[in-house]
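Example 3.2
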Amino acid sequence: MLETTHPMSTLAAAAAPGDPVPWVLLWSLFGALALISTGLTVAAYFLGAFRGSVQGSPRVEPGRSAWPVAIGLAAALLGLFMGGSVGYLTLGLDTRRAVVQDAVTPPSDVLQEHERANPEQLVKLMQVSAISYFAATGAALLTIIVAHLAGWRGGIGLGISRLGRGLLVGAAALLLIIPWMMTSAIGLQIVRKALGYPLDAAHELIRAIRESPEPNLIFWGFVSAVVVAPLAEEILFRGFLQTSLVHAWSWLLDRRDPGGAAFQIVAPGQPDAPTPGIPPEAEPRSPLLTATPMLGYAHPAPPRPPPRRYPPSAVARWTAIAITSVVFALLHEAWSIPLIFLLSLGLGYIYERSGSLWACILVHFGFNGLNMLFLLPVILGSAG
């Protein structure tokens, strides 16, 4: 996924191999970006962007099970493996390699495991990864469609009704996420340089294009980073994995004791005290006893139903966001894990707050598209 190609690695890629990046340049970039990011965040706060909880609009209606989403996640894993296998057989790759390893690797990051392969081989590997991602996405979405046909009401925030607001939220979020990600990227490079590690030379895709500027490699690099990654990864990781984890943790963390006294004695002819916000005729009676006009005592009544566990609490949502972010980051190169983790936290928060997957897709698309613009001089220079 090309969000690992940040401005610092692009700067290093444009420089001659072995040329050190001076401390003054690093700190100047870091200070300027940190100032811009802080200013935008303060402005967003006063505009009300952070007011409210992470508990946004529902994706699964109250009282409905989230099992179709979990089943869709399982179907996605099967589709991932089947798509990778079909891709290997169709493209004539060596099937002795681990199909699962390349299937679960993001399309543009599959190059990191095959740095010495020829350009044609790299293109095929990226195609296999793209095929597996689309197969997984299709299998997961098909599960949701079947569930809807069976009468289930819920989703992953991908409905047309959420498109307009989702795009607006995503556009606003980009204004904050891009500066902060660039600031974090420069900060990571400062830490690496201080510890004596070399700066990240460049994403493998940049290096491959610079060494072998093949049109197919450039095209598939664009497709994998700007098309496949934003769409497939957000649907799979945010839509299915995070939603499944939110409801799983809600079931574990948000269970409450139904409460209520075992006995309630009331005066003859007097009903139980009503609960604010519930009409008296709809108010459930005491768990075990109900008033009688003659004795003032009670007779057995149906137990009060336990409180619904929806909406999931903020703790359940943040736990799901954190776990999803760890899984998401671990699929990328080791040096980029902190950056990808931070990006995923932001995407997860946007998803829970807005309830729209379109916002996350737009942020992912915009971020990767911007990085492609940073790569344009490298691509044009290689082509020349």
